[in-house]
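Exercise 7.
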Amino acid sequence: MQYEKVHSFLIQKLEAGLPSYLTYHDAGHTKNVIEATEHLAIAENISGDDLVLLKTAALFHDAGYMQVYKGHEDISWNMSKKYLPDFEYTSDQIETVCQLILATRWPSKPKNHLEMILCDADMYYLGTEHYSFYADKLYQELKKNGTVKTKVDWLLHQVGFLSSHHYFTQTALREREVQKQKVFQQLKLELESSFTASGKIKPAELIQDILLILTGVLFAGCALKAFLVPNHFFDGGITGISLLVHELYNFNLAIVIILLNLPFILVSFFTVSRRFALWTFISIVLLGICLTLLPEVALTSDKLLISMFGGVFLGIGIGLIMRAGAALDGIEVMALYTLKRTSFTISEIILGINVLIFIVAAFKFGIDSALYSILTYFSATRCIDYVVEGIQAFTGVTIISGKSELIKYKLVNDLGRGITVYKGERGFLPGKFEISADCDIIFTVISRLELRKLKNLVYNEDPHAFVFANTIKEASGGVIKRRHHH
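Solution. The predicted structure, written as tokens, is:
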């Protein structure tokens, strides 16, 4: 084996042929990996031909970057088979080099001692005091090829990578693990600080929230004064109770709505957040002002149009205010408060309250008025769902694949999603019922817009993966992505 000659030959090709945007995976990286490989091999009592084969694999392991970025290991494998025969490597030696190169593919799963050494050498910089220097070079490279876009993306990428990485050899564990964990903890602190800083309300977001609230109040006010109130129709929730009180006792609707919502605003101050309580109070007071200023004009006398469009306008108004991180009806707070003291879900609690409202309306104003009011409530609810969720409605996706490790890494680090893994078995096919194998069943939650991106990501890695999705109607517990953090 003429290692020195092939080393000189390939380093020259790397220096001349690697793209300029490869600020990390350059010829210098290859030299560093070769040096780390030799250090680890000697410390792990590897010598002779095995040491030469290790250094040769380190030399070729990133050569494929001269042609492609993704899947470069396969190109490196082909290049070693092409060039090494010219430098007196036997077919068995070339095969060993090829297997060593493929072992560096992430996530690393070395099968023998030599592969462990090369995998550790490739990531030896993780546990050094020079981590930031090399990490910045990698960040510039990934930013140029579009893998990461911002510093926060990069922090997420690093934390995700370091959390799943581990050294295999005793030498690497002894020399690099402690420093690597220090780097990991520092990056987590930086990531937490970034999220804290990003959580502050920016002026543009504040203006957007104010506009959403003003528009929502106007829609809700028009729904009440132009459709529901002139025609003695009702809605659900505190708004429905306020309409009932207004019709039964002729109290001022604006004052009733504000007074009935005040206790729930106070509860939300302690159970949700100060910001939510403040914005909700402002929204309800603005609605009261709007109801006072707007004239009571019946736009139509058609009961079906009243119930449908009254609900639509009211639903749009409530939905816009919810998008701003507030509420226009205290029933949600009431349901949340009751939920902690009963076994009922929020949906069941709200349904029960509204059933009582519509029963009272049926007895006092007739069954027709109650039934049309139910239609109004249904229209408003559908519009709220559309305005608040829209195309951001969540979808649960389950993935079963023979390449689950690689797919898990891609989902977390490329798609930026959390995952849950169940242990299961796959197989049990007709005619082959006795054949099965253990597998990881991956579950994640995404928005509708991300479904196509997720499928492309999965099928690029495993065209035979089994993927199915279902819409999530209601979720409790865990971490759910929201537009506003109350």
